[in-house]
Design brief:
The mean pLDDT is 81. This protein has helices spanning 2-12, 17-38, 41-44, 50-75, 79-105. The radius of gyration is 17 Å and the shape is elongated. It is mainly alpha-helical. It has five helices and no strands. The chain has two domains: 1-44; 48-114. It is found in: Membrane.
Length: 119
């Protein structure tokens, strides 16, 4: 939701296209991961370890958001760009919280699948 509001702020303020492109990309990727988990497709498609892909996405998004939102706040051509930059920094914090929660959830030394020992 924060990514969508950030996108709307950047589009409404007619900010640089890179700002809107990053916010739009993060909105789409977040919706796709949400659908993946809601429809339980991560269980059906075992070819990829989805929580690790989610962590990778959040780290890359946080790095891009840091750069783009700091530029948006520093340049701040209008109030919409400033609001989009601030909301983008809030989204950055949420991405880092997501990484922390997913890292707690994942235990790489815990056995998965059929090879797990019986208890």
């Amino acid at each position: 939701l924060v990514a969508l509001v950030t996108l709307l702020c950047f589009v409404a303020s007619k900010a640089h296209e890179a700002y809107a492109a990053l916010a739009g990309m993060e909105t789409v990727i977040t919706v796709l991961f949400l659908l993946l988990y809601l429809l339980r497709l991560d269980v059906r498609m075992r070819c990829l370890f989805w929580p690790l892909a989610d962590i990778f996405n959040s780290v890359i998004a946080a790095l891009f958001l840091l750069v783009v939102c700091l530029f948006a706040i520093i340049i701040r051509t209008n109030k919409g760009t400033l609001a989009g930059g601030v909301l983008g920094l809030i989204l950055l914090v949420l991405c880092l919280v997501d990484v922390g929660l997913l890292c707690k959830k994942i235990s790489l030394d815990k056995a998965r699948g059929r090879s797990a020992p019986a208890k």
